[in-house]
Automatic annotation (TrEMBL), chain A:
<feature type="domain" description="ABC transporter">
    <location>
        <begin position="8"/>
        <end position="243"/>
    </location>
</feature>
<dbReference type="InterPro" id="IPR027417">
    <property type="entry name" value="P-loop_NTPase"/>
</dbReference>
<dbReference type="GO" id="GO:0005524">
    <property type="term" value="F:ATP binding"/>
</dbReference>
<dbReference type="InterPro" id="IPR017871">
    <property type="entry name" value="ABC_transporter-like_CS"/>
</dbReference>
<dbReference type="InterPro" id="IPR003593">
    <property type="entry name" value="AAA+_ATPase"/>
</dbReference>
<protein>
    <submittedName>
        <fullName>ABC transporter ATP-binding protein</fullName>
    </submittedName>
</protein>
<keyword id="KW-0067">ATP-binding</keyword>
<feature type="domain" description="ABC transporter">
    <location>
        <begin position="260"/>
        <end position="507"/>
    </location>
</feature>
<keyword id="KW-0547">Nucleotide-binding</keyword>
TrEMBL record, chain B:
<keyword id="KW-0472">Membrane</keyword>
<feature type="transmembrane region" description="Helical">
    <location>
        <begin position="20"/>
        <end position="40"/>
    </location>
</feature>
<feature type="transmembrane region" description="Helical">
    <location>
        <begin position="240"/>
        <end position="266"/>
    </location>
</feature>
<dbReference type="Pfam" id="PF02653">
    <property type="entry name" value="BPD_transp_2"/>
</dbReference>
<feature type="transmembrane region" description="Helical">
    <location>
        <begin position="158"/>
        <end position="175"/>
    </location>
</feature>
<keyword id="KW-0812">Transmembrane</keyword>
<dbReference type="InterPro" id="IPR001851">
    <property type="entry name" value="ABC_transp_permease"/>
</dbReference>
<feature type="transmembrane region" description="Helical">
    <location>
        <begin position="91"/>
        <end position="113"/>
    </location>
</feature>
<feature type="transmembrane region" description="Helical">
    <location>
        <begin position="205"/>
        <end position="228"/>
    </location>
</feature>
């Protein structure tokens, strides 16, 4: 039997951005009809590599072979012509166009739309038949759920007759059920002979969905292995370069007194939509309570109310004393005075001012600290020294307090925020998406810090869309769906399947 | 108010709406592609001057029109280079163009003609003359339809007919052609266009150039058809009213026609306070009517009459993400 040519073969691809070598001499072979995973930490160079393949960047060196033929890909047009389709992490759809209009955009036949649309409608029906990808061609994108929108992206690629499909972090916005559905679709595509490259940082997806997997670290391809021959622990080690604890090492919780007591909380947003529809929740000293749920089901609003920047009705007590919910006396300062610290969900928008230095960011919210004062002025030297000490304890790299927040990596930005909040020794720590966009090495450290605070007898309320993180970190899990708490479970007594059902609004 | 006065009022509505309509459609092309353009005013002014000046010098209004369009396109490309190629702030670039045009036109006019910043009065072939449509006189005797045909429909310059024909044409281009689909897409989500393998920069330049041509027509109309020659600041805020009309029209071609006709009517009433007095028995200050388009735009923007959602990528330079 003659050996089949690989669908994609990269030879010695290198790409530098200034002094940063994003890709170093990368070679990879992807066989047709397989799902090939590429895994690596943020900044490992996965996205750069795929951008080169899709014609966004030109490689400094190296060659690309598509089905054994050397191919130049100077732009996206060439990539499409070579049969490569890409599904980006953030969808590239025109929100107020219909599905059909989005599908033909850039791939129209001729100058007039009517015949193009008619042809696309027919082709779409065929694709639907072939791959089981049904979607209403006349639906407007913004009225579709994310799972459907992703399907439109896949259809877009198939309409352009892509044989090679690249998916960049495709499950980041999906519920577990939607993700399962996506993997079923990918499996079907593979059976039809398509080649799929799956970029992800989730080990579980690699293990479940791929045939082979390549690991990237700091711009280099460290290994390519058959998925069936490896294990999550081995992959994690290859990604980080050292052994990593995938499970958070923690002792059973010793819950004490109730610190946070929420009763009948309702939140109506500024458009008049009720986002939280009457919830009750308690968090005790010495325990971590995780709020699971697909983004947009009221978790963010809960954090905003507790953090003091949204109005609500109902009752919240902290250490037995009521909190003001009217918005009049509710602000970050008074919340902090009550022993509440907040690590917001969106650190770049709510947690930090990206153009300000690390020491300025460390002072925010605590700038009235007597230790930071020098008469009527701020004692900048003291703040800097304090920041430097905190950066040391939280292993922020580089430990330079004068560096602007935007110049730190995602993980280090998060550590700056965490250091600021945790070191104030709060009674209640609110944490939103603590490890979003954070690499594995830093995730481990951040989880350890949160557990350490719990072990000091503090209460932690954790909001995360990563179910794995909730299960690993929380002692108790409450699932939010459509403004309600669908149910509470002890993490030790539940699993992803049960929580996934609750997240989808199915009450057990 | 008799019927003939009414028809005459509508007639001047059409005349005054024409430059607004052309400028509004110019803005529509640009803003639908994601390039905000507050430089409509400046481009109209430049085109008004250059078309009057070249028409005066050459004696040909058609050469004048070409010069007007060319000057407007130069400013358009300036805006394009600043906001597309160099990803500058589109508002600042637009403001600069308005100031540049206001100063340059008067300066060059004084240098060329030494008449205090105006061009000589245009006569004969240096002006767009009204076109009398066939049978205007013979049909004029028919009641109702006759006067409407003779006074309202017939007797405008060619640019008026071009402006009104541009409305269905713009609609057709935007909603029935590949170019229109891509143009609208680039104003909503340029990343979608880019990843589909279509040039964002190319589309936006095309939009800006179309905007320049239409502004050129609007400006030429002002100085060679509506008036006979250029005077200082003769665009008189029409570029801004056209922008207001664009918002009022929610960036749609047919609505743009209705909005500019409405604003044209206010303009026509401004010069005929007697009509309002006859109708409502109150005397209204002309200036008040002049301010109405702005007032109505504020009301629209405040969300009282439906929602005006601008193209989502409007005003944002496109930077390819990593």
């Amino acid at each position: 039997m003659v050996e089949q040519a690989p669908a994609i073969e990269l030879k010695g691809i290198s790409k530098a951005f200034g002094p940063v070598q994003a890709n170093k001499n990368i070679s990879i072979r992807v066989m047709p009809g397989t799902i090939h995973g590429i895994i690596g930490e943020n900044g490992a160079g996965k996205s750069t590599l795929m951008s080169i393949l899709y014609g966004f960047y030109k490689a400094d060196a190296g060659e690309i072979f598509i089905s054994g033929k050397k191919t130049e890909i100077p732009d996206s047009q060439a990539a499409i012509a070579a049969g490569i389709g890409m599904v980006f992490q953030h969808f590239k759809l025109v929100e107020n166009f219909t599905v059909l209009e989005n599908i033909i955009l850039g791939a129209e036949d001729g100058g007039l739309l009517t015949p193009s649309l008619a042809k696309a409608r027919k082709t779409l029906l065929e694709l639907e038949h072939e791959y089981g990808l049904n979607v209403d061609p006349d639906a407007v994108i913004e009225e579709l759920g994310v799972g459907m929108q992703q399907r439109v992206e896949i259809l877009k690629a198939l309409y352009r007759q892509a044989d090679i499909l690249i998916l960049d972090e495709p499950t980041g916005v999906l519920t577990p059920a939607e993700a399962d559905q996506l993997f079923r679709i990918l499996d079907r595509l593979r059976q039809e002979g398509k080649t799929i490259i799956l970029i992800t940082h989730k080990l579980r997806e690699i293990m479940e969905a791929t045939d082979t997997v390549s690991v990237m670290r700091r711009g280099e391809m460290t290994a390519t292995v058959k998925t069936s021959d490896t294990s999550p622990a081995e992959l994690a080690e290859l990604m980080v370069g050292r052994k990593v604890l995938l499970r958070v090492d923690k002792t059973p919780a010793q819950p004490g007194d109730v610190v946070l007591d929420i009763k009948g909380l309702r939140v109506v947003d500024d458009k008049g939509v009720e986002r939280i529809k009457g919830i009750d929740l308690q968090v005790r000293a010495g325990e971590i309570v995780g709020i699971a749920g697909v983004a947009g089901n009221g978790q963010s609003e809960l954090l905003e109310v507790l953090g003091g920047y949204a109005e609500a009705t109902g009752e919240i007590r902290v250490n037995g004393q009521p909190l003001d919910l009217s918005g009049r006396y509710a602000d970050g300062r008074s919340r902090r005075a009550r022993g509440i610290a907040h690590v917001p969900e969106d650190r770049q928008r709510e947690g930090l001012i990206m153009d300000f230095s690390a020491w300025e960011n460390t002072a925010f919210g605590y700038h009235r600290d007597p230790g930071y004062q020098s008469g009527v002025l701020l004692n900048n030297a003291a703040i800097r020294a304090d920041t430097e000490a905190k950066m040391g304890r939280f292993d922020v790299r580089p430990p330079n307090p004068a560096l602007a927040a935007k110049n730190f990596s995602g993980g280090n930005q998060q550590k700056i925020v965490l250091a600021r909040e945790i070191e104030r020794n709060p009674d209640l720590l609110l944490v939103g998406q603590p490890t979003r966009g954070v690499d594995i090495g830093a995730i481990e450290f951040i989880h350890q810090q949160i557990v350490a605070l719990r072990d000091k007898g503090k209460a932690v309320l954790l909001v995360s869309v990563e179910l794995e993180e909730i299960l690993a970190l929380a002692d108790r899990v409450a699932v939010m769906f459509d403004g309600h708490i669908m149910g509470e479970r002890l993490s030790a007594e539940t699993d992803e399947k049960e929580l996934g059902l609750l997240m989808a609004g199915v009450s057990a | 108010m008799d019927f003939l006065t009414f028809v005459q009022l509508l007639d001047s509505t059409v005349r005054l709406a024409t430059p607004l309509l052309l400028a509004c459609l110019a803005g529509l092309f640009s803003e639908r592609a994601g390039i905000f353009d507050i430089g409509l005013e400046g481009k109209m002014l430049a085109a008004a001057f250059f078309s009057a000046a070249i028409a005066a010098l050459s004696g040909s209004v058609w050469l004048g029109l070409l010069a007007g369009i060319a000057s407007s396109m130069v400013f358009s490309l300036l805006h394009g280079v600043a906001s597309i190629t160099f990803r500058g702030n589109q508002l600042i670039s637009g403001v600069a163009i308005n100031f540049l045009a206001a100063g340059l036109t008067v300066l060059i006019a004084q240098d060329w003609f030494s008449q205090g910043g105006r061009t000589p009065s245009l006569m004969g072939g240096a002006r767009f003359e009204p076109i009398t449509l066939p049978f205007a006189e013979s049909l004029g005797a028919i009641p109702i339809f006759g006067p409407i045909y003779r006074e309202l429909i017939s007797g405008h310059s060619i640019l008026v007919y071009v402006a009104f024909a541009m409305v269905p044409l713009t609609w057709w281009i935007l909603f029935r052609t590949r170019f229109g689909l891509r143009l609208r897409a680039v104003g909503e989500n340029p990343a979608a266009v880019d990843t589909a393998g279509v040039s964002v920069v190319g589309l936006r330049y095309a939009a800006v150039i179309i905007c320049g041509v239409l502004c050129g027509l609007a400006g030429a109309y002002l100085s060679t058809a509506l008036q006979a020659g250029f005077v200082k600041d003769m665009s008189a805020g029409r570029g801004f009213i056209a922008l207001a009309a664009l918002i009022f029209a929610k960036w749609r071609p047919w609505y743009a026609l209705y909005a500019t006709l409405l604003f044209g009517l206010f303009g026509a009433l401004e010069t005929r306070p007697d009509v309002i007095e006859a109708l409502f028995g109150i005397r209204v200050q002309g200036a008040l009517l002049g301010a109405l388009p702005y007032v109505m735009t504020v009301i629209i923007l405040a969300g009282f009459v439906g929602k005006a959602i601008p193209p989502r990528a409007g005003g944002e330079p496109y930077v390819k993400e990593r």
